[in-house]
């Protein structure tokens, strides 16, 4: 009889140990005495004992298999040449490029003004010519030492996209303005999340569409931008309910954006080199 109670509790524990039922998406997938977390392709599972009898598991990803944003957008960064010559050489700040990709854009700073012809060699890939925004004319003084310049690779040459000053005559200034107006601002589509990172070097227009599963969100600018740089943000609200989108790091906004179901809003910002100041907002579009 003295063994009856221990045996009863051992049997009860054995029965309870067999009562684990696992569901995925609300549908049962099986039951058993042990729940096993197995790492999938690119997904890593890590578990450890926690408080009491609890075991906590945290999934992560294998960066060698799943590329992060820096790997996908390695060209969206900053390059500085200190060769003291117009055969510019620089390294991209986010990592190492394997090759030049058509459409890549970045900020370039050189230490020698390009008065005539010049070239750029990034990450040792090899030199490519630098041209004005039309892809034909040489810079001719429009790429000035110490002045940041947006650069775009068209598949053959690097094109200057405007943004630098210079000592050229006013006729050349007007020519640069006319050429610059031929460009359509690049647009980045941001996946909607509770906290979003806006890559200020990914383009001048950034768009996101809210998700009812996520709810309200905050947009943080990765950098404070360049002095005088303009930026537009488009927020499309889903059809289910109005979402509140706030503006966090590196923003000086007029306050949270209160959305309406099925409506869109546009916001314009300008940078002083430190933060982005909101200058206009249009809602209920």
* Radius of gyration from CA coordinates: 27 Å
Q: In DSSP terms, counting alpha (H) and pi (I) runs of 4 or more, how many helices?
A: 3
Main sheet: which strands, in order across? 5-7-10-11-9-8-6
> Poorly predicted ranges (pLDDT <50, ≥5 residues)?
3-15, 163-182
What best-fitting shape do the alpha-carbon axes yield? Answer: globular
Strand content: 35-45%
Element pattern in H and E? HEEEEHEEEEEEEHEEEEEEEEEE
Number of strands: 21
Number of domains: 2
Q: For the residues shown, what is the average pLDDT?
A: 80
Structure, described:
There is one protein chain. By secondary structure, this protein is mostly beta strands. The protein folds into 2 domains: 112 residues, no CATH class; 96 residues, Jelly Rolls, CATH 2.60.120. It is built from 3 helices and 21 strands. The strands form 5 sheets. A 7-stranded mixed beta sheet has the order 5-7-10-11-9-8-6, with no helix packed on it. A 6-stranded mixed beta sheet has the order 12-14-16-20-21-18, with no helix packed on it. A 4-stranded mixed beta sheet has the order 13-15-17-19, with no helix packed on it. It is globular, with a radius of gyration of 27 Å. The N terminus is likely disordered.
State the gist of this model.
The protein is mainly β and 285 residues long. The protein contains 3 helices and 21 strands. Helices cover 10% and strands 35% of the residues.
